[in-house]
Design goal:
Blueprint (H helix, E strand, L loop, with lengths): L10 H13 L5 H18 L2 H24 L2 H7 L7 H8 L3 H4 L4 H7 L4 E4 L2 E3 L2 H6 L2 H4 L1 H8 L1 H5 L1 H8 L11 H6 L5 H5 L3 H15 L13 H6 L9 E6 L5 H9 L6 E6 L1 H4 L10 E4 L13 E5 L7 H12 L8 E6 L1 E2 L6 H14 L4 E2 H10 L2 E7 L7 E7 L1
Parallel strand pairs: 3-4, 3-6, 4-5, 6-7, 8-9
Antiparallel strand pairs: 1-2, 7-11, 10-11
Helix pairs in contact: 1-2, 10-15
Bound molecules: S-adenosylmethionine.
Protein name: Hydroxyindole O-methyltransferase
GO molecular function, one term: O-methyltransferase activity
GO biological process, one term: methylation
Length: about 400
């Protein structure tokens, strides 16, 4: 059983599904995502359980370490300097100071190549590929040290934690798996601010996470004009959009680029220490320090926007955040926009399930199903007008109004 393909019977059906894309369909983003899902199912069907065990126990944990070493030593950056020139392990060892034996003879470089992170051009000759070039950029690379230093210990200790607490779902963001593993009573958001480089890496990771993904600001996702712009006030003081817990402002930057002619002000809010990290470049966006557990200072904006904020908090805290916004909304005019994952009842994408367990580990919170969103929002005095969804694995936009 362990040494034969996991599900050979489904292989021909999956190949047929892939052929449909080959024959008829334009490879737009939605089709690409569907094709990727089928291709992943095909790999799973062909792999034997034994191969899966070895991949998970050996290849992926060591790959994680190898990528972090490559980032730390600047290996990806060096390879990227002359992207068309194959480099040997000896060349790279001169640039990075890493013992050549570690790089060649089937060690770090070989594993990076075997797992598709770089391209093996010839015997002991390597070229960067799109992934390693991406990892040469700090904004993308930062997810690795951020997770390594601020999450991994808690992930490895999950089994120990749950055995100790009797397998109870964590609900207290200051007393969960993260606090157990890191021996602290601080919330992850408070704990992480003690380590400036980790805090910077997290904010970079957040801004890279959203980049290039289908966005509610695109015309084929959510009708910004008819739902928001058409009925918006046009005087200079009116606020169009408030991004609550908006990090370094990447979403509002994207919004102002995609919708340059919307009327009114765009306001970015986050904790004081996050706002302090912004180094110019926000254009007309106004940045404001605001703790979202306190009364929302902007009254009667056209829309208040929360992206990947509520999934960081258990229900009681979410109701506090939502109530602080509700108190400043103008009935019949203001909208609440929530950009979050909705866990489907069946067939949830790994991006959602993986993030759900990460949230459980770090902040005792979770991704929610549609029914859970409806219940939570009703408790805070909101009704859902419409849920705008693009495709599996992409966050939905939940359009809400005051009841
Ligand atoms: C997961 S990040 C999402 C950031 C951004 N909305 C995005 O989608 O990339 C959560 C954000 O909530 C902010 N945050 C946490 N606690 C906060 C508080 N009490 N008041 C305001 N912002 C807070 C964090 O600083 C962080 O920027």
């Amino acid at each position: 059983m362990a040494t034969t393909a996991h599900d050979m019977d489904s292989v021909s059906g999956l190949l047929e599904e892939l052929k449909v894309f080959d024959d008829d369909l334009e490879l737009n983003e939605q089709n690409r995502l569907q094709m990727l899902q089928v291709a992943r199912a095909l790999v799973r069907a062909l792999e034997t359980p034994q191969e899966t065990v070895l991949r998970l126990c050996w290849a992926e944990p060591t790959l994680y370490g190898a990528i972090i070493m490559a980032i730390d030593t600047g290996l990806f950056r060096h390879m990227n300097r002359c992207p068309d020139l194959p480099m040997t392990a000896r060349n790279l060892s001169e640039f990075t100071g890493v013992d050549p034996t570690l790089l060649k003879r089937g060690r770090i470089m070989k594993h990076l190549a075997a797992m598709g992170v770089i391209h093996e051009y010839g015997p002991d000759e390597y070229l960067p590929n799109k992934l390693s070039r991406t990892l040469s950029l700090e904004k993308y690379a930062d997810g690795f040290p951020c997770m390594a230093n601020g999450a991994m210990r808690a992930i490895y200790k999950l089994p120990e934690y749950f055995k100790k607490v009797g397998y109870v779902n964590p609900n207290d963001p200051t007393d969960g798996p993260f606090q157990y593993a890191y021996n602290t009573s601080k919330h992850w958001f408070v704990w992480s601010t003690q380590y400036p480089s980790l805090f910077r890496q997290f904010n970079n990771h957040m801004s890279a996470y959203h980049q290039g993904r289908p966005s509610w600001m695109d015309a084929d996702f959510f009708p910004v004009h008819s739902v928001l712009t058409a009925g918006a006030r046009r005087d200079a003081d009116s606020v169009f959009l408030v991004d609550v817990g908006g990090g370094l402002g990447h979403d509002l930057m994207e919004f102002s680029q995609k919708h340059p002619s919307t009327p009114g002000r765009l306001i970015l809010q986050d904790k004081r220490d996050v706002i302090a990290q912004i180094q110019g470049g926000l254009g007309e966006i106004e940045a404001m320090a605001h703790n979202f557990f306190t009364k929302q200072p902007i009254q009667g904006a056209r829309a208040y926007y929360l992206h990947s904020v509520l999934h960081d908090w258990p229900d009681n805290e979410c109701i506090r955040i939502l109530s602080c916004i509700a108190g400043s909304m103008e009935p019949g005019y203001s909208k609440l926009l929530i950009n979050e994952n909705i866990v489907p009842d069946q067939g949830a994408d790994w991006q959602i399930t993986g993030l759900d367990l990460m949230l459980m580990t770090l902040v005792s919170a979770r991704e929610r199903r549609e029914g859970e969103w409806r219940q939570l929002l009703a408790q805070a005095g909101f009704q859902i007008v419409h849920i705008w969804t693009y495709s599996a694995g992409v966050e939905s936009l939940i359009e809400c109004e005051l009841v």
